[in-house]
Amino acid sequence: MKKTIITSFFVFLLSVSIVFAAWVEFDSAEYTEQKQPVSMHGVTIDEYQSYMDYKATIHLDKGWNLIAGGSEFLDEYLMPGSELSLDDLTVVYAFFPASKQYLQIYPEPSHDVIDAIAVKIKPEEKEELKTVAKWVYAKNAGILKMDFYIYYDVFALWKGWNLIAINPFLEGKTLNGFKGNCNIVKAYEFKDNNWVVWNLDKRINKQDLGKGIAIKSSNDCVLYEQNENNS
Q1: FRET partner for 181 with CA separation of 20 to 30 A, picked from 10, 83, 86, 143?
Q2: How far apart are CA 32 and CA 71, in angstroms?
Q3: Taking the CA of residue 91 as centre, how many other CA atoms within 13 Å lie in the half-sphere pointing to its CB?
Q4: Looking at the whole model, is its pTM more than 0.85?
Q5: Average confidence (pLDDT) per 10 residues, the chain, 231 residues
Q6: What are phi and psi of 111, to 5 degrees?
């Protein structure tokens, strides 16, 4: 599929009809403590944590998978021991939540296509491309091992629908306990060919890591754990 698809979030969701059971194992180096304050969506984060590099073992089903992944799916990031190659993937999409656009990131589109998308994207959401959940269509089921970079313990959300990838910073937490200044309306995971309601009080466990979740927020906000340093 060579053409970048720009479509509404709901149209894409309604068109998906493949069983989802994919999950991701994270193998990260030590996290970095970021001490520089960041202000966004009405909140100031005085400090946050990030992993600059991580190795992902991605268990893919045949068909569509909504999973954690980086912003680049390139052969040089493929790791030894991977059952699948990038040739086993048909397409990978990322979703820009502010401008409500999809960007095909594999196969890499032409520069002209990227430039056409870029002019419609808000500058503050470009960084989120690294951390949002990705739609991956796999020709075959199997394990894909790749080296990616970056994920954080804070998530910028925009009013409406967002796709976030559950990373290890969320293990043991609940969305209601980690919601920062977000007014979360509802959340779903894609499982067994259906969108299943995600309980906002569900404690996230190791088996949830790497899943993609659709979250609807009634405001532009930041999803984070409130403490004495962040309020």
Answers
A1: 10
A2: 20
A3: 13
A4: no
A5: 40 38 60 66 66 72 85 75 91 86 83 72 67 88 79 84 88 92 94 85 89 94 72 51
A6: -60, -35
DSSP 83-152: SS-GGGEEEEEEEETTTTEEEEEESPPPHHHHHHHHTTS-GGGGGGGGTB-EEEEESS-EEEEEEE--EE
Report residue 217 as tokens: 């927020």
Q: Is the dihedral of CA 13, 219, 203, 28 positive or negative?
A: positive
User: How many angstroms separate the CA atoms of 216 and 218, rounded?
Assistant: 7
Residue 13: DSSP 8-state: H
| Edge-first strand listing for the sheet containing 212-217 | 160-165, 212-217, 184-191, 194-197
Domain boundaries, the chain: 9-223
Identify whether the C-beta of residue 62 lies closer than 8 Å to the C-beta of residue 39.
no
